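Narrative of activities, Objective 1.

The group set out to show that a structural description can be obtained from nothing but a protein's sequence at a throughput compatible with the screening campaign. Below is one input-output pair from the validation batch, recorded exactly as produced.
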Amino acid sequence: MTDKISEFKDLLQRAKFVTFLTGAGVSTPSGIPDYRSKNGLYKREKYDFPPEYMLSHDNLVEHPDVFHDFTVHNMYFPDAEPNIIHKKMAEISNEKGAIVTQNVDKLHTKAGAKNVVEFHGNLYDNIHCLTCGKEFDYKYYLKDYRHHEDNGIIRPGTTVLYGENINPDNVEHAVEDVECADLLVVVGTSFKVYPFAGLLRYAKNDAKLVVINKENLDLDSEVLAISDDAVNVFSQI
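Output recorded for this entry:
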């Protein structure tokens, strides 16, 4: 494993543009649960509806109280702090690259990263009433999902819910960052959620690909696959 980390470190040093593609596993060391692992959000307990419905636009509109309770107690971690993975990625991407993340926790930005595409949006920006559009601070949303001036439902941020389309600007910027990279680094994601998982098809033919994930993703044999804790890996680069 040490040899692979050394190879990764060498690739980072030689790369001209590094694009990190990140998922929930990057934020679990900061105390934020992932989704699909055996201890993840989707498997921790029984819900009234399937987890995908709990985080859907339909649930937001049809059962706003259920949606609010689930979201507030399972998705918001405002006191979470960036870990070594976020910090190292911020340092590298600010110098020569970008980060495209599935995460909605804003920890990449909190770590100081300037070139971040939040592919699925985030939970903290543009929290607004679906009736009148008035914006609210996330702290208000943690307490109430109703805008009492017009009884409108408050939507939590720019997060893309199940049943909604990805923001076209996010897709465009993510594709550009993948196309620019001579080194792509996939970290902490099962790579099963589309269209995020399809971003690799925009990579240059000669781009190097590194995957850092506890579980094998069964990608091309030429990929440098590091089956290790990402905290351990990024602590050594």
